[in-house]
Fold:
Amino acid sequence: KQEVTQIPAALSVPEGENLVLNCSFTDSAIYNLQWFRQDPGKGLTSLLLIQSSQREQTSGRLNASLDKSSGRSTLYIAASQPGDSATYLCAVGTGNQFYFGTGTSLTVIP
Amino acid sequence: GAGVSQSPRYKVAKRGQDVALRCDPISGHVSLFWYQQALGQGPEFLTYFQNEAQLDKSGLPSDRFFAERPEGSVSTLKIQRTQQEDSAVYLCASSPGQGETQYFGPGTRLLVL
Structure:
């Protein structure tokens, strides 16, 4: 079974700082990897989807990279803002199933 | 529709009661997923539909859990004889096709007393 780990579990940074969230997975045979944010009591909002053939995806201040061979993905957030405070989850797609990490809880301090 | 909707948003059930959770995916989306999310954890895969076909139900925790999508649109997750350990948020997601971006609903928070 695919195991997905996210480090750190929690992160607190001052506004304006650049930061990196990490996701690692045990089986490199993946179809894709998706990053989500989850606000308290809410569902998940898709941020970026990287197909297995891609190395990175960018959307605004967000950049996600994928290194299948080493089983790692990173989510880079530039110039963080208080509105970025949320839990960030990565999900690894292996055919019909998606395996989620436990998330990184991010707090951006004004 | 504008997004994935789920109902009810909150459900309190007595232990042993049957419950039914509904998911309305984005119109035209072929793929539909159900997940269970315990407090402080990431979502755990339950089952996957492609149109009306249930292609993977390996994540359903017991035979008390049953899901259907008879017309390839709305889906229902049914839990029979609920137990306290079934208390969780149940999330539904849809995507245009396999391997494409998943769009999640707000979830149904189930509390079994």
